[in-house]
Design a protein that fits this description.
Blueprint lengths: L15 H14 L4 E6 L4 H16 L3 E6 L10 H8 L1
Parallel strand pairs: 1-2
């Protein structure tokens, strides 16, 4: 993510679509039919993986539930509330 600040240096990035598909394939090969993604909407990579995971799973006609965690810097954040919300 420093690439935008130092445009003259090489940059290596992850393939978030491939990561999402590999994660879904891993779970599907183990027989899971109902999928979920827990992400942190503060990070662009998490949003890209969430979207790719959800689209891929749904394209295979499986259920996908998405949970975007409350960012820890949000004044409303509470670990106890977050656990309850996730459950």
């Amino acid at each position: 993510s420093a690439a935008r600040y130092l445009p003259t240096i090489p940059c290596v990035e992850t393939d978030d679509i491939a990561i999402a598909r590999q994660a879904a394939d891993h779970l599907l090969l183990r027989g899971f039919k109902h999928m979920g993604y827990v992400g942190d909407p503060t990070f662009q990579w998490s949003n890209l993986r969430r979207d790719a995971f959800e689209q891929y799973v749904e394209s295979l006609e499986h259920d996908c539930h998405v949970y975007d965690a409350t960012p820890t810097h949000n004044p409303a954040y509470s670990w106890t509330k977050e656990q309850t919300r996730l459950a």
